[in-house]
Amino acid sequence: MTVLRAAVAAVLVLSCEARTAGTRASPPASELPVSELTTSSTLAAVEASSLGAECVVPSLGLGGVDDVRGLTESGPCGVEIWDTEQPVAHRCGQGGVTKPLQLGRLLAGVLPLDEATTSHVKKIFEHGKGRGRRADVVGLVGDSITVDVGFLGPFSARAARGRAVLTPEVREALTLEGTTTIIEWFQAPVDSFCCVYRAARVGADVGWVLGTRAGARERPLDVLIESFGPAFAVILLGTNDALGLGDAQGIVKQFRANLGVLLATLEGRGVIPILTTLPKHLRDRRMPDCGAQSNGRAVAMTNAVSAAVAEIACERHLPLIDLRYALEVLWAHGVGPDGVHPTVYELGGGGTLNEVGLQCGMNVRNLVTLRMLKVVRDVVMR
């Protein structure tokens, strides 16, 4: 086993200690989902158990449907959907680019808040009241997947009429009191979906958000908090951290450390962090499929970083959107032809939350994000 293979396999073994007895043992490598693969021919030893009885993260136990095709160090290697589903993924929701879906399966990516998490977010919220945090403002933190105007932008009060389409079932899942939904809650007096600074940038990693990169004049996180005072922050980071050069274990360790600083900063300033697991990495044609810097390694590292996000959410008792699990049932796992970014429904945009729009990755991200905001808002406003 090469150093890379050993390192990646090691970082993919999740060791979050069970807080109660009864967690399941990890399955043997031969039984692991083939969608969770490392570089070379080794399947990642991903623990398919819960992180303690009170913290179950579905994406850590995914059953794979991907067809591993001769994954070796020298190639050829890859996953079947890279050739079959991914090239036409941009046409999600149209023609034959659909899959049978159930709203309940998508919403299963919105993890319920256990007692410890409920207590913790209430404490952060109360702390934030004394610091001027606003319960009707949400901040967005991330990379290009968050910069994308298809993410929550269609729900802005300033969006063109008809940009947001909700089925009755979706509307019910997002309703607060009466006929008001979580969408209207965050539209006024400050429109969080269009007019609040996003601490996000194409290519951003956690270090950029913290302002630790060379030449940084300000911390994007500070700008977000001080300018708008959000009580909540939705975070999706790690895709670019996962693509870093160097030792695999070191990359994950540094990511955990940096994310810990970011979360401590938010909590200390009265902002409730809402974490999000990462979409899968598919084929990025700028990379070879095999080798030290390849799609194979990117798959493994993205798996590892996404697992670290889930683990940290459990450890810190923070809300977690398991986006990876929600996207699993979509065409090409909700990822577009570039292998990185979620698909958006071409005929109606990311605000189309119906049977056709919810065939697409960004539309599902909007659904599960809005639902989690409702869940957390309801808890702290009781």
How are the SSEs ordered, and which strands pair?
Blueprint: H1 3-11, H2 80-84, H3 103-107, H4 115-129, E1 134-142, H5 144-147, E2 165-166, H6 168-174, H7 182-185, E3 199-200, H8 206-210, H9 220-228, E4 230-236, H10 239-242, H11 248-268, E5 272-276, H12 295-316, E6 320-321, H13 323-327, E7 352-353, H14 361-381
Characterize this entry briefly.
This protein has helices at 3-11, 80-84, 103-107, 115-129, 144-147, 168-174, 182-185, 206-210, 220-228, 239-242, 248-268, 295-316, 323-327, 361-381, and strands spanning 134-142, 165-166, 199-200, 230-236, 272-276, 320-321, 352-353. The protein is of the alpha/beta class.
Describe this structure in words.
Helix content is 36%, strand content 8%. The strands form 2 sheets. Strands 3-1-4-5-6 form a 5-stranded parallel sheet, sandwiched between helices. The chain has a two-stranded parallel sheet with strand order 2-7. The protein has one domain (87-284, 294-381): Rossmann fold (3-Layer(aba) Sandwich). The protein is globular, with a radius of gyration of 20 Å. The model is unreliable at 1-53 and 63-76 (pLDDT under 50). It starts with a helix and ends with a helix. With 382 residues, the protein is of the alpha/beta class.
